[in-house]
Amino acid sequence: MAKLEKVFKAYDVRGLYGEEIDEDLAWKIGHACGGFLRSLMSGFERGQACSNRLVVGRDMRPSSDSLAEALMEGISSSGAGAIDIGMVDTPMVYFAINHLGSCGGIQVTASHNPVEYNGFKISGAKARPVGKDTGLKEIQRLVSTLRRMPTGASLAPIQKVDLWSEYRQHVLKFLKVARRLKVVIDASNGMGGKMIPAVFDGADIDMIPLNLDIGKGFAHPPNPLVEANLQQLKDAVLEHKADFGICLDGDADRCMFVDEKAQTVRCDLMTALLCRHFLKESKGAMVVYDLRSSRAVAEEIRAAGGVPRRERVGHAFMKKTLADGHGVFGGELSGHFYFRDNFNCDSGAIAFATALTVIASQSKPLSELIAPLNRYSHSGEINFEVDDKAGKMKEVEKRFADAQIDYLDGVTCTYKDWWLNLRPSNTEPLLRLTLEAPDEAAMKERVAQLEQILGKPVAH
User: Fold this and answer.
1) Cα gap 302→263, rounded to integer Å
2) 166-263 CATH fold
3) Distance in angstroms (rounded) separating the CA atoms of residues 301 and 31
4) Which of the following is catalytic: 63, 76, 111, 347?
5) How much is the average pLDDT of 188-203?
6) What is the pLDDT of residue 44?
7) CB-CB contact of 193 with 214 (8 Å)
8) CATH 3.30.310.50 in the chain, residues?
9) CA 337, CA 242: separation in Å to the nearest integer?
10) Rounded CA gap, 193 and 213, in Å?
């Protein structure tokens, strides 16, 4: 049970392969999900057509093949059908669930973790995320009661389906380039290495590929949020005089951007840049952003005729808010971008296609498009190791009691000219601080005030 507690996270199941994640657990998760996701069909779909089948995809990790096989055996043993869509990026699983009308799906992946790790991202009907508050606890409970059974001869055969052609067509609906751009693409030796050529080869783009090889480990950790992992991309952007560069994470659901000067572009500023594109066609629509984002995001959404909606950090909250509010677009500081016309799901491929469309429609380079949006000084997310997380948050709340305070995610203290958000990590003894002020001097001064309460920050 302790092992299950460790690998069942807030939004997925993840751990070290061979020690915490193995084929036995994969089978149990498949069996539990087969029953659980079918039981949700009537409630989710309210009578709409939804098949008694689960989509299964996998990433390029050496352990993913055997885990996917065991997972599909478990699904079949529950009485559900399994559809094997092969080695794919995670957003393709979301596409397949909707395209095939299945009752859910599972991607075998450990996302941006090192190659020794693996795990499972679980989605329900219409690719609704299954997290701790939307079924993952119940799946964990079911898994804890199961014993793996031998494979029965009477099990329904696993159906193999190749959806690359349909997926390419879907993604390219978001691409309309007014001029040809040169772009460096770092796939981080992850699933972008398969997705980028399959989807974008032949499109009107000059692509300079980096780290497209898959199955041989990572040239750098597949986490584009860590600045050091972008260095190879930045060097290539300057060397090739590219218009911009992108870096995808291991399962290609996140996309980070670098401008033509090899400067990292924060993803909240990309949300602010891209929102106008979607609001042109959908005046008055909602755009969702996570509460770590710059004030400039809400200002740009309003200026473009949209309704800004601030939301908790995490894909489960972002997707639900986008769907419930009939929003058109959403973005997180972490590089997840969400699209109404992609079933409210995130997609690195569609973020790339949209950025190409927007940048190609302008005569200015990306750095000049971003400059007016970067009008405040933003700290980024700073981590502090804290044992008594609740106590320290109370202390911060008391210190800034004259602010406008809300508790959407942790505690947010808002003043006329600056704001801070302090939220606890789900899995570690960390508090995460994000702060924004009118200029860099004011921002650093405010961060120093917080350090007096929280101590020295720790490395990312």
Assistant:
1) 27
2) Alpha-D-Glucose-1,6-Bisphosphate; Chain A, domain 3 (3.40.120)
3) 44
4) 111
5) 98
6) 46
7) yes
8) 378-454
9) 23
10) 6
Q: Amino acid identity, residue 401? A: A
Render pLDDT for 288-347 as a digit per residue (tens, 0 to 9).
999 999 999 999 999 999 999 999 999 989 999 999 999 999 999 999 999 999 999 999
| Residue in the structure block whose two tokens are 């050496």 | 62
Q: What is the pLDDT of residues 163-185, one digit of tens each?
A: 999 999 999 999 999 999 999 99
Residue with tokens 């218009």: 243
Q: Which two tokens stand for residue 456?
A: 């020295």
Residue 46 pLDDT: 44
Overall average pLDDT of the 201-222 stretch: 95
Q: Is 77 a catalytic residue?
A: no
In whole angstroms, what separates CA 304 from the centre of its chain? 25
CATH 3.40.50.300 fits domain 267-348+363-373: no
- Is 10 or 155 the better-scoring residue by pLDDT? 10
User: What integer pLDDT is reported at residue 216 of this predicted model?
Assistant: 81
